[in-house]
Design a protein that fits this description.
Length: about 280
């Protein structure tokens, strides 16, 4: 309808030679992670459609990852931008190891170190690691706002009509087997399917992961996204913060998200504003 948007693409400069492979990542929100951990693998698997058998243009798939320390245990990945970690213990232990240089029994060697497992004494005990996992798992989700706002309610309907909910699934039910009782059998509204989706070349970077090409990203949960500016002091969305508004974040979508993005782009301005108002209410 003539309204203009500017999409900024990040350009990174290096003092020395640029690395061949790199990716810039924002730290993700930590709310509700225990609830996502409590969703049964069967629920995630049921949402997958890697061959697009229903022909809706969406072919989300789950990633199977190994347990820590090279164990043969195979689990569905659900945390990280590429679904690289299956549970919060792995996610917390990996952050301690890669970001802070702290070893645990889960990851007893620092990245790049060559040590025998027997000689690598964890710096953080299992009890302390479990306390950190429990803290992260039980960080609560902020309540949705604007529940009686007509514009936000219209935006919720438009969110569905545009096809956004094909990946940002609004409602899931947690399983009954999580070790923390308060996370079991809960109806939650995370707006994610926890699957990997191809979002096109424009969002790809140069850092592939095992079995995950640069174009694929895990669907980000949207709960709490309306509080981004208040929590972070500014708005920055997508994996590297390139989008300065929720509308810009939508307009960056390609690949499987292309049609939903086009549906948003072709809406009248008042409908686009309503959809954004809905997102701001989460």
């Amino acid at each position: 309808d003539g309204e203009s948007f500017t999409l900024r693409r990040p350009v990174y400069l290096f003092e020395d030679d640029a690395p061949e492979f790199y990716s810039v990542r924002l730290a993700p929100a930590l709310v509700g992670l225990g609830l996502l951990e409590a969703v049964d693998e069967s629920t995630i698997a049921a949402l997958a459609d890697p061959c697009d058998e229903n022909e809706d243009g969406i072919s989300g798939r789950y990633r199977v990852v190994s347990g820590a320390n090279g164990t043969s245990t195979k689990l569905i990945g659900r945390f990280g931008y590429k679904s690289s970690k299956a549970g919060l213990t792995y996610q917390v232990a990996a952050a301690l190891n890669r970001d802070m240089g702290v070893t645990t029994s889960v990851y007893p060697r620092l990245d790049g170190e060559i040590l025998d497992a027997e000689s690598a004494l964890p710096e953080l005990s299992d009890d302390d690691l479990e306390l950190m996992r429990r803290y992260v798992a039980l960080l609560g989700v902020p309540a949705r706002r604007s529940l009686a706002d007509e514009q936000a309610l219209l935006g919720e309907a438009l969110f569905e009509e545009a096809g956004c909910s094909s990946c940002h699934v609004s409602t899931l039910i947690t399983g009954e087997s999580h070790p923390y009782a308060e996370l079991r059998s809960q109806t939650i509204h995370p707006f994610t399917d926890m699957l990997l989706h191809d979002l096109g070349d424009r969002l790809a970077d140069t850092l592939n992961e095992v079995d995950v090409p640069a174009r694929e990203w895990r669907t980000a949960p949207l709960w709490g996204i309306g509080l981004t500016a208040g929590v972070s002091g500014q708005e920055a969305y997508l994996h590297d913060g390139r989008a300065q508004s929720l509308a810009e974040a939508i307009l960056w979508h390609g690949g499987e998200g292309h049609q939903a993005k086009e549906n948003f782009r072709m809406m009248p301005a008042q409908d686009r504003a309503a959809l954004v108002k809905f997102l701001e209410s989460l």
